[in-house]
């Protein structure tokens, strides 16, 4: 037996107003506030790593693929390609993105962090990611970057 339920809203919902014409993505609030913000504050990610991650999140196409060369990313961010390459490697090690094994210009943003598309498409990508897992702790499970230990600040001498 199949049951179909229809909802009718009393007032039509307004569309989201977002900057630019690239559309919008769903981003995990927990990732932004409980992972990314504290890691940035504790200097667990470099500014380059943060910039490259945010660029990939914003450039993803439907189905969470970002098709860019490292040089394209570097040119847009005005960074050396070698810095972008190192940042992509670290971000991939934290499972925030995954690089396609066959086409090294294709990156997949972790669909549990940021996704452009509907819930069915996200679930399909998660199912595919789970089939490709090498074991527990592999993508899409997140590895939170460890902040670098900070040097204690030198105490200022107080004048009498």
Chart the SSEs and their pairings.
Blueprint: E1 26-27, H1 29-41, H2 47-59, E2 65-67, H3 70-77, H4 81-93, E3 97-99, E4 106-109, E5 114-115, H5 119-131
Antiparallel strand pairs: 1-5, 2-4, 3-4
Helix pairs in contact: 2-4, 3-4
Keywords:
160 residues; mainly alpha; two-stranded antiparallel ribbon; 5 helices; globular
Mean pLDDT: 82
- Could you tell me how far the N terminus lies from the C terminus, measured between alpha carbons in angstroms? 86 Å
Note the overall shape.
Answer: globular
Number of strands: 5
Q: Main beta sheet: strand number and arrangement?
A: 3 strands, antiparallel
* Poorly predicted runs: none
Side by side, the strands of the main sheet go 2-4-3
Radius of gyration: 20 Å
Derived structural class: mainly alpha
Fraction in helix: 25-40%
What's the order of the H and E elements?
Answer: EHHEHHEEEH
Tell me what the structure shows.
The protein is mainly α. It has five helices and five strands. It has helices spanning 29-41, 47-59, 70-77, 81-93, 119-131; strands at 26-27, 65-67, 97-99, 106-109, 114-115. The strands form two sheets. It has a three-stranded antiparallel beta sheet. A two-stranded antiparallel sheet has the order 1-5. Strand 3 (97-99) and strand 4 form a beta hairpin. Helix 2 (47-59) packs across helix 4 and helix 3 (70-77) crosses helix 4 (81-93). The longest helix is centred in the N-terminal third of the chain and has 13 residues, at 29-41. It is globular. The mean pLDDT is 82.
């Amino acid at each position: 037996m199949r049951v179909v339920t229809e909802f009718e809203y009393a007032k039509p919902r307004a569309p989201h107003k977002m900057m630019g014409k690239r559309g919008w993505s769903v981003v995990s609030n927990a990732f932004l506030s409980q992972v990314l913000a504290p890691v940035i504050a504790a200097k667990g990610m470099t500014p380059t790593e943060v910039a490259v991650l945010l660029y990939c999140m914003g450039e993803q196409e439907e189905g969470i693929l970002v098709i860019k060369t490292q040089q394209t990313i570097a040119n847009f961010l005005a960074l050396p390609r070698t810095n972008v390459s190192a940042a992509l490697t670290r971000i991939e090690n934290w499972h925030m993105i995954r690089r396609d094994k066959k086409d090294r210009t294709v990156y997949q943003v972790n669909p549990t962090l940021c996704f452009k598309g509907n819930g069915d498409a996200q679930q399909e990508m998660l199912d595919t990611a789970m089939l490709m897992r090498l074991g527990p702790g592999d993508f899409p499970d997140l590895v939170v970057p460890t902040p670098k230990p900070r040097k204690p600040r030198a105490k200022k001498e107080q004048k009498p």
